[in-house]
Write a structure and sequence with these properties.
35% of the residues lie in helices and 26% in strands. With 207 residues, the protein is α+β, with helices and mostly antiparallel strands. It starts with 8 loop residues before the first helix and ends in an 8-residue tail after the last helix.
Length: 207
Amino acid sequence: MARVSGRSLWVAWPAGVLCAAVIAALLWLAAPGVPGAVDMIGAMLRGATATPSADGAGDAATDAAPATDCRDLYPDPLWAELTWTPDVLLSQNTDPPATASALATALTPAVRFTCTWRTGDGRSVSTTVATVPVDTAPVAHAALAAEGFDCTLEDGAARCERARGTVREVHDLRGDVWLFSVLDDWLPEDYSTQVASRVFPAQPEGT
């Protein structure tokens, strides 16, 4: 090995040994924290790479308070699907349910919000969330069934559907909430189920 003129081995060797000792001491001090650091990095990576399921399960908002506007109404995958639809326009207002059923007049709903998506080629999806008198589900079930809807009534919750041509109507009534959707020539996968999960959040166990 070539030596640089002017440097003494008597100085270089002790300095090298001292540096090595300092590095070894630092490594020894840091060793107890290595497993914790590895765990923290792993948790960060798992969180960054986690993806929500197609039906929105595991979405934190699903277990939170019920939706209060159009953004809250849609799980992230469904929101992305709708917003990325070509030539689409979303409007939020307090228009009454866009249904021909006499139920809209009979229940006198207090509309919280209505979300309507329209495309340039005439397709549309509209959902209304409204407040109605408590426990009107059995009345709605009977009225809609008489109008030709396919209805179910379970545990005080009514769900009715009807398809006519390209138009599908879906009604969900639970407690004092009426969730109504009308889909015209546009049927995103599990649409009514996904929005229902945001309007009627799952109750924590034991409540």
